[in-house]
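Schema walk-through. Below, the input block comes first and the output block second. Nothing else is stored per chain. Lengths vary across the set, and this one has 129 residues.
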Amino acid sequence: GLPVTITSTYRVCELQIEVLHPAILIIPKFERWFANHASTDPQALRKAASDRRDIGFLISWLLENGEPIRFHEYHGKTKCEVLAMVRQYHSKYAGDVSQMAKLRAIMQDDWVNVLAPSSKHKAKSDLPP
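--- output ---
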């Protein structure tokens, strides 16, 4: 899902290390969290907890830097599939009002699609077998 050639990078301090831009990196974090959050396997639950911490950090970073999530630069899932994962994340952690407010701020016009799911925005694992 990550781009073969990385065009959106972020330079880390004076080290001149280029990493995938956080506005794109957050998407595979949502993907892995989504794949593991409902598991009963201890290792999968540890991954989900780690991803939740990373997602929280990335949400804060994006907000502080005025960056929205760049759905159009990610090629692993459709935007609708990613929105369904974000919807599940929102549903699970809706009680964390501060983080949800930050998430809403970086979602811009897509927030309405997170709150009002339609059949075209369902993640594959939400569909009946």
